[in-house]
Amino acid sequence: MHDQLATLYPRHLAVLRDRADKALALGGFDHLLIAAGMPAEKFLDDQDFPFAVNPHFKHWLPLTDAPGSWIIHTPGQKPKLVFLQPRDYWHVVPQAPQGYWVEHFEIVIVRNAAEAVAALPAGHRAVIAPAAVDGIEVNNPAAVLDYLHWHRSYKTPYELALMREASRIGTRAHRAAADAFRASASEFDIHMAYLDAARQIDAELPYASIVGLNEHGAVLHYSRFDRTPPSTSRSLLIDAGASAAGYASDITRTYAAADASEFQALIDSVDAAQQGFVAMVRAGQSYPDLHVHAHHVLAGVLREHGILRMSAESAVEAGVTSAFFPHGLGHSIGLQVHDVAGFQQGERGGTIPRPAGHPYLRMTRTLEPGMVVTIEPGLYFIDMLLAELRDKPAAKDIDWAKVEAFKPYGGIRIEDDVVCTEGAPENLTRDAWGRE
């Protein structure tokens, strides 16, 4: 892996430098300064939250634990890293930079934040930072950010290599979680099995894991982690990812107990539908159109399993499918789980609105080569949404006994990370699952 990254990184850096040059020209800036950021302080305490590096910083470098550091890009000059290595016996001091990328940077080591700011160049500066910094004006200029965010949607081969690694780690951990479920473990212990297999702590994961047994699978962002296993483990919905040098994987799987054959059949139908949507991740495909298409296909799944008696078209038009599939089909992914520019109209900004009736869709772009998106359809049995559905005219075309039979299983979500290419899509998740 190291040799591959060493080979791919110079071209990745060249792409970022070229993008930065063009972004600076749009705003008339001389320098691009990117702060790694600092840990956020807890209210009324002298402790910090876990550090989360500025994604713009880790785009340039595989450094995710360098608080107080800066990247300096000046067109025509070698990029510079101002690396904060404080004198500190309270915390682990970051090691001096090393690895395949250091030869491509001028590196200056400083001992405190004031020295770091003093090392920054003067002039007309575009300063990208997540919070205010003493001694420097943080401007986060829109023209620069819009350009960089737009082009961040197109992953370099270096980035894709790291995302494949994040998928490999995530699928390995998902296998361990599935084994723990089959051993009747609690949600907490399933989560611990996941962390152990990923070899990552919670703060290192790209997002907080969702581990829901039985009815908890109907809570879209369930995060309680019961410590005691239920008397009967009927189903597991686990949505969990992993990180590789700051790049994310985002994977969801749903499992049924061995004796839950009807729910397993529903899982199988959603899985087949999901693979059909993955196959449509191709250049020129409108993501909103794909999302609406998913509603029609999932309406067919609900009809196939006897839950609906109406046509797919009628179910979508009446909003019935939104009660069972209330979230978006997916989102852009990369340096962040919900990566930037999912709604952006172009490199100068602008917004592409969501289609009417689909307020939770996180991606409205047309797919192009180099983009990476999640494909995550689901079917859920959520009390609040079902209660609202009972009051609609379409309620007469729903088999409520079937709904009640499925409610103890919570819900189903199947999610893969997929690369749009010049041809057939690359499924990072399933490819990694096959290798593990």
TrEMBL record:
Coiled coil ranges: none
EC number: 3.4.13.9
Binding site for Mn(2+) 1: 250, 331, 376, 415
Cofactor binding notes: Binds 2 manganese ions per subunit.
The entry's keywords: Dipeptidase, Hydrolase, Manganese, Metal-binding, Metalloprotease, Protease
Binding site for Mn(2+) 2: 239, 250, 415
Gene3D superfamilies xref list: Creatinase/methionine aminopeptidase superfamily (3.90.230.10), Creatinase/prolidase N-terminal domain (3.40.350.10)
Keyword Transmembrane helix assigned: no
Cofactor: Mn(2+)
Thylakoid among keywords: no
Reaction catalyzed: Xaa-L-Pro dipeptide + H2O = an L-alpha-amino acid + L-proline
Residue span(s) of domain Xaa-Pro dipeptidase N-terminal: 8-150
Residues annotated as domain Peptidase M24: 162-422
InterPro entries according to UniProt: Creatin/AminoP/Spt16_N, Creatinase/aminopeptidase-like, PepQ_N, Pept_M24, Peptidase_M24B_aminopep-P_CS, X-Pro_dipept-like, X_Pro_dipept
Pfam families hit by this protein: PepQ_N, Peptidase_M24
Family the entry assigns: Belongs to the peptidase M24B family. Bacterial-type prolidase subfamily.
NCBIfam families associated with the record: PRK13607.1
Function: Splits dipeptides with a prolyl residue in the C-terminal position.
HAMAP family, sorted: X_Pro_dipeptid
The protein's name in its UniProt record: Xaa-Pro dipeptidase
Organism, as annotated: Rhodanobacter caeni
Gene: pepQ
